[in-house]
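Key result, reporting period 2: structure in, sequence out.
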């Protein structure tokens, strides 16, 4: 199964060209087998903005990770960093790394471990399937002797390397040390009819780069606290000349904001992103609360990364209820304006009510006769947690059900 192609003529001959990921539409469905806690899960009827509810450990975050892995195509390094290591970025050793890799797979009773993620894109009948497999090395036998002791002898020569080590996005740097990487195993990804293998090593981390299936960004709860992300967002807003527009929207939610800037220090080092306040103070963005910083991060990324899949974990975290409605309106507006698709998780019924009111209430901007851009999906695990029940509503249906029946969406 090949990635969708287009045909054109050159000198009278047909030339086939892969469709660029920026031209692919939004996801309409996903089917997951053997990933994280999912034996099997199929969801259909996605819209431009998808709000995910459900109790703890029902699979909301795992669904975001599955969508991100699919969007990455043959790329494994971004999912390794942003899904495998995001839940606990600090590594204590090779076995810790191996345990994290093993955590991707629902069934680890036989080798190799595998999972499948398939999805469809609007206007395209093709079912795009990504299959990932992992063959652990004998180095991991202590982790699970009954299974890993059966691992094949993987013949790889790994030489000592002297490098400036970055502990795989854990924000701890070790300068210029000699290390012999330890082979964890072989990771193989197949997307359509293309395959790629990776040597997974515990430091240093090897990387390969491929064009993604679709541009995607996953936003965890604490991503807005990273200094690099603040500077990256500001840089792109400035470069694309949309900083003024962004600042005006921010003022509506946070009246104390007069301007956003980045000012170098007098010793010529780079300064942080700063906020100029209405009382003429200049304060680093990191001195403000998580609500303002997360607003800057989320909406800035939506304006910068367009025609993209944005996966937002716990949207209600850090935001005061007074700001939730304004953010909700902008998320939906920006999704349409910048051709983005959103998948958003939440536990908060208060956020849901603020979200619906901003979109469908008395002063909402989505009329009854308009096509509804929102889908509300609730995941419900069975008592033995072996099955996940799924039910979904349009955004307006969920809003009216909350008003008339006080429907519990969580």
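The corresponding designed sequence is given below.
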């Amino acid at each position: 199964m090949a990635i969708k192609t287009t045909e054109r003529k050159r000198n009278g001959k047909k030339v086939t060209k892969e469709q660029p990921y920026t031209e692919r539409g939004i996801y309409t469905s996903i089917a997951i087998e053997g990933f994280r806690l999912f034996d099997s899960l199929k969801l259909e009827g996605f819209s431009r903005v998808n709000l995910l509810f459900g109790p703890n450990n029902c699979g909301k975050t795992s669904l975001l990770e599955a969508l991100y892995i699919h969007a990455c195509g043959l790329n494994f390094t971004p999912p390794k960093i942003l899904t495998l290591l995001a839940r606990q970025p600090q590594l204590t050793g090779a076995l810790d790394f191996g345990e994290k890799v093993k955590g991707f797979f629902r069934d680890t009773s036989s080798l190799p471990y595998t999972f499948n993620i398939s999805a469809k894109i609007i206007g395209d009948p093709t079912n795009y399937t990504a299959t990932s497999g992992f063959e652990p090395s004998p180095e991991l036998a202590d982790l699970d002797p009954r299974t890993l002791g059966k691992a094949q002898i993987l013949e790889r020569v790994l030489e000592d390397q002297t490098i400036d080590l970055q502990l795989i996005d854990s924000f701890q740097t070790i300068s210029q040390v000699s290390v012999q990487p330890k082979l964890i195993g072989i990771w193989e990804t197949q997307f359509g009819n293309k395959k790629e293998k990776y040597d997974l090593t515990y430091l240093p981390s090897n990387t390969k780069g491929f064009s993604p299936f679709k541009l995607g960004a996953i936003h965890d709860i604490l991503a807005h606290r990273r200094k690099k992300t603040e500077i990256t967002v500001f840089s792109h807003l400035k470069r694309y000349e949309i900083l003024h527009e962004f600042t005006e929207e921010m003022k509506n939610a946070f009246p104390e904001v007069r301007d956003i800037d980045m000012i170098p220090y007098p010793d010529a080092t780079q300064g942080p992103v700063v906020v100029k306040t209405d009382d003429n103070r200049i304060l680093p963005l990191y001195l403000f609360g998580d609500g303002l910083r997360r607003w800057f991060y989320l909406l800035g990324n939506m304006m910068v990364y367009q025609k993209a899949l944005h996966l937002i974990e716990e949207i209600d975290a850090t935001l005061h209820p007074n700001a939730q409605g304004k953010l909700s309106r902008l998320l939906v507006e920006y999704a349409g304006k910048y051709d983005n698709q959103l998948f958003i998780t939440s536990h908060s019924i208060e956020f849901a009510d603020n979200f619906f009111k901003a979109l469908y209430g008395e002063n909402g901007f989505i009329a009854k006769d308009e096509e509804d851009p929102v889908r509300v999906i609730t995941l419900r695990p069975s008592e033995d947690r072996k099955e996940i029940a799924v039910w979904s509503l349009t955004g307006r249906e969920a809003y009216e059900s909350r008003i008339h029946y006080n429907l519990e969406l969580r």
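The first helix runs from residue 60 to 72. DSSP finds ten helices and 19 strands in the chain. This case is discussed further under Risks and Mitigation.
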